[in-house]
Amino acid sequence: MTDLSWQVVLVIGLVVTLGAYVQAVVGLGLGLLSAPVVALVAPSMVPVLTLWLALLIAGLNLVDEHEHVDWRSTAWSLPARVPGTVLGAWLVASFTEEQIGLALAVMVLVAVALTVHTVEVPLNPATLATAGFVAGATGTATSVGGPPIALLYQRGDPQVVRATLSVFFFVGVILSLAGLAVSGSLDRQPSLLALVLWPTVVLGYVVGRRTRGLVDGAAFRWGVLGVCTISALVLLVRSVA
C-alpha cells in the first residue's frame, strides 16, 4: 500500500491514538499532535492522512454531543472557512510544508501568549469569521486548523466547546479534502493508510470519552492552551530544522 516501514506506521498509530484521546477530552488535538510527527517520519502523508483521521474523530465527537452545539457561532465561522479552504489548497500547491509550518507555529504561539496574559478575544461574528477563514487556510494546508477557532472557545463550557468544534472540524475537513481533490493534491496512498489507522482513532476516542468527566473548567482551559503550545513548538522545530 505504501513504502513506509511497519515501525513508522506503528509510531504514527501510537501518536494518532494519543491525539484522538486528547481530542475526545479537550475538543481538539488529533491534528495538532499527529501532523508534526507524520510530517517528520512520512512527509508525503501530510496533510491528507491527518485530515481523514480528523474527519473520523470529529464525527464521533459530534454524534456523542450534538445536543450541545452552539449553532449561532457555527453559522458565522463555517461559511468563512470556504474561502480559507481555497487559499489553503493554493498554499499546498505553491509553498513548501516547512514554510507553511513556520508561519503557523509562530501564529499559534503568539495567540497563546496573548491568551495567557489575559488578552481575551471576544466571541462575536467578526472574530468567528476571521478564525474560520484562518482555520480553513491552515487546516487545508497543514491539517492543523484547530488553534484559531479553539482559542475563541477556551473559556466555554467543555461540552459546548467539544460539540461546536466537532461541527466546525467535521464540515471543515470535508471542505479541505474537497479543495485538495480539486487542486489535484488528494493522494491515494495517505487515503488508504487512513483506513488502516481508523481503529487507532476509535481506541483513543473511547478511552478519552470515559475519562473526560475528570477534567474541570480550569484544567480544560489549560489543556487547550497546552495542546496548542506543544504542537506549535514541534511545528517550529520541524520547519526550521
Write out key terms for the chains shown.
single chain, 241 residues, mainly alpha, 0% strand, globular
How does this model look, in words?
This protein is mainly α. The protein contains 10 helices and no strands. 79% of the residues lie in helices and 0% in strands. It has one domain. The protein has helices at residues 6-26, 30-41, 48-65, 71-94, 97-116, 125-142, 146-150, 158-182, 188-211, 217-240.
What layout of secondary structure does this protein have?
Elements: H1 6-26, H2 30-41, H3 48-65, H4 71-94, H5 97-116, H6 125-142, H7 146-150, H8 158-182, H9 188-211, H10 217-240
Our count of domains comes out at 1
Order of helices and strands: HHHHHHHHHH
Largest sheet properties: none
Helix/strand-derived category reads mainly alpha
β-strand percent reads under 5%
Rg, rounded, reads 16 Å
Low-confidence stretches: none
End-to-end separation: 29 Å
Please state the overall shape, judged from the principal axes of the Cα atoms: globular
Count all strands and give the number. Answer: 0
Q: Please count the helical segments.
A: 10
Estimate percent helicity.
Answer: over 70%
Averaged pLDDT = 87
Write a brief structural summary:
This protein has 241 residues and is an all-alpha fold.
